[in-house]
Amino acid sequence: MKCPRTTISTAPKSWSISDLTSHTRTFLAQTAQIASQIDPAAIDRMVELLVAVRARGGRLFVLGVGGGAANASHAVNDFRKIAGIEAYSPVDNVAELTARTNDDGWESVFVSWLKTSRLRADDLILVFSVGGGDIEQNVSPNLVRALEYAKRIGAPICGVVGRDGGFTARVADACVIVPTLDPESVTPHTEAFQAVVWHLLVSHPAVRATEMKWESLQNAPIAPSS
Hints:
The chain has nine helices and five strands, in the order ααβαβααβαβαβαα. By secondary structure, the chain is of the alpha/beta class. It has one domain: Glucose-6-phosphate isomerase like protein, domain 1 (Rossmann fold).
């Protein structure tokens, strides 16, 4: 006897123009509201940590998963090129990341990488995460184990996280918590503001070491016409 075939509708949800406009305006309004509620003091403390790690010749290790991993990779580029800080992220070596995950497990992947990188107290950890890590709920346990190790070593920690920040916010020396205005938009707003915060940091006068390309063109003298 054949089982009845289940038909799954693949038709897209019908949206009216007013629905689309409403979501767009709401999302942008929430973005502006979140920007006004970000704690400047937390960012200023991160600036101090970044200036200090560069001055003492330490390294910056940027950790993240999912969208936070993509942000980590982009941020490493900016901290190296614009801020002149020696920066690395485990997500930039997919071969090592997947080998460690496959052989040793997801929970230990970042802490093992930090051990191999000879993490020192002179270094600095930066976390990009929505939840910040939570062992009890099995959310980003790799971040939790990495931060526990950093605390044992004595390396300072900073982060940009959402909701209540989870484990990262509890142990960080400086942590920006992206306010939750809509439970349905926690992830996109948090990951978007991770980019806002790190771009603020690398362009901060105390952190920026080199002029950025387009700004240098804007400020370049105009050659006289012949």
